[in-house]
Amino acid sequence: MKKWFLVILVIINTVFVSCITNKDVVYLQDHGDGTDGIPVLRELPKPYKVQVNDLLSINVKALDEELTRIFNPVQTTSTAGGNNGQSQASLYFNGFTVDDHGKIKFPILGEITVLGYTTTEIEEIVKKELLKQYFKETAELFVTVRLPGVTYTVTGEVNGTGIYTIFEDRVNIIDALANAGDISLTGNRKDILIVRQYPDGQRIHHIDLTDIKAMNSPYYYIQPNDIILVKPLKRKVIGAGQTVMQNFATIMSILAGMTSIYVLTKSL
User: Fold this and answer.
1) Quick check: 58 and 96 in contact, CB under 8 A?
2) Model pLDDT, residue 23
3) Most buried residue among 52, 62, 157, 247 by CB atoms closer than 10 A?
4) d(CA 77, CA 33)
5) Which residue has the higher pLDDT, 67 or 204?
6) Structural domain contains residue 47
7) What is the pLDDT of residues 97-149, one digit of tens each?
8) Nearest alpha carbon to residue 19 among 251, 255, 250, 240
């Protein structure tokens, strides 16, 4: 009988320890290590540098609009300010894709190397080449180069896996996850994986979103084409419940099963 009692105690302890607590689900907690409230970012994220397969929107303006017509795609109603999905599709056909050699093909100017440059630097490169090859030096040109928002992928223990685009220049990882329906209750917020593209290949980074120090991480702000992977908590893997009541139901089921086995063995 003592053995059965010890087994029951072990089961109860294991299941209740497996409950998901506030420490597992609350974002940006201050763990009392001297940080008073939200920490000030040490530095803003560095400007994004264009990678292979990025899609660029380039617009050229001048006093004489006829001279710039060839450089700018026709603006449809959806592109000018309607449905975001249609705008994205339009840009896919009318924008400039960075090829495997880090170049784009621009009207009149031909191939331009953009790999490793920021959008501000590309604006200066395009403007310089336009003045050199097409416009007069005295022409008043205005060139804008933009990325079509931040496109990223979310998968794993979230409420809405998929590929998303947020039409902002800077997007932090919490905004990105909220846009995907947030992490489910059984998702591991303490070890989020970010797969990021670099010129020499992909790398995997880790960030703990339950710690307020995450705001100082270089991976707090996501980049275009990032993949965010959310792993399940270990307690989900072992099949434990998410709440005390669920765990209580699990205990009762186990005890009922053990009682049946005990009665059967005694009657034999």
Assistant:
1) yes
2) 79
3) 247
4) 53
5) 204
6) no
7) 999 999 999 999 999 999 999 999 999 999 999 999 988 877 789 999 999 88
8) 240
- For residue 117, the SS3 value is coil
- Between strands 150-156 and 227-230, the pairing is parallel
Q: Hey, which bits of the chain come out as E strands?
A: 55-61, 96-97, 103-106, 110-113, 142-146, 150-156, 162-166, 192-198, 201-207, 227-230
Residue-range definition of the domain harbouring residue 249: 2-19+240-267
Judge whether 50 lies within some domain.
no
Confidence (pLDDT) at 176: 97
Q: Is residue 90 part of a domain?
A: yes
Same domain assignment for residues 121 and 165: no
- pLDDT (tens digit, 9 = 90+) per residue, 31-81? 766 455 555 555 677 889 999 989 999 999 988 888 888 888 765 444 444
Residues 151-182 as b/e (b if ≥16 CB within 10 A, e otherwise) read bbbbebbbeeeeebbbeeeebbbbebbebbeb
229 has a pLDDT exceeding 90? yes
What's the total number of domains in the chain? 3
- Domain contains 49: no
| Pair 223, 48: CB distance under 8 Å | yes
* pLDDT of amino acid 40: 54
Q: Which of 111, 146, 181 is the last residue of a domain?
A: 146
pTM, rounded to two decimals: 0.73
